[in-house]
Amino acid sequence: MQSRIAKLSEDYIKESQNYPKHTKSERTAALNQIKNTAVDKAAAMNKIGQGFVGPVMMRLKYEGIARNVLTEDVIAIGDVPVYDVADEMGKAYFLQPYNSEIAVSQYEGKRVMYQFVHLAEFPTVQTQDMLELTIDMLDYAMNEARQRIQEKEDTYLITQLKTAAEAFTPSNPDFAGLTSHVVSASDSSGYFQFANFTNASRISAQNRLDSKNLLMNTADVYDLYSWDLTATSVNFKNEQFSSSEPITEFAGYRILKSVMMDKGTAFVLPDSDYIGRFPTRQSIQIQDNNKAENFAIGAIMDEFINEIILNPNGIVEVKKSS
What we know:
By secondary structure, this protein is an alpha+beta fold. The chain has seven helices and 16 strands.
């Protein structure tokens, strides 16, 4: 058995003299690197924690509908904002700049000229909120501002749809000679019924257009849940009560819902290509708008857009009589 011989202190001294020597500055730099890494890790962990500890949400996120009702069209910088339309009964509905009113224009030569409208929001957060709260308040404010811009887009669109549907008079009929694009939904229950939407679709069908979308107030969508088997089917009712998914389509219709819609009013619409365009010169851009003197961190969110209804013949408004 081989015995182990303990090292003498002189042996440790000799080994230590063979280690590489570092200057004081090198040792200081190495220590600072360790400190910086620790700080970075702490900041990263705090950021991850903020992602999990989000704000207590007060409501659902608003989802815009304008780009589903109209076909979005990106207009390059310098291009002339004009649309050519093959229509012998030309009439267009679009936003008027500066006062955001709806302009009705009888156009000649199948050409529609328009200008872009500037929509903007100014989210601002106090520096104190950034320091005291664990949630990312600036990100929250930016998301809220984006939703407000979408709400403005949808409000203007709904006003245009209403103007277009109610513009048909005996002196201004549609292609089929019909003088009304408004259907009354009269029912003792006070709910929209399936027949209301099919009656509206008849008007579009006479203009050789297929109804594809139902635009409704978020609360009115729940009318569909009250339909009995005489209007639906066993499978429809089974899916309604056994599935956690909301009703988003039925009988070939796609449901678009918005709280911007007047309660008790719905629109039956064809596909977006048969209604109009959503010209976009500039999508939503974000620029810094900090105000140091107010201890505020902020931004500017803006876009240049318009909303143009070029073919109102397939737009039908359905109103509850009550």
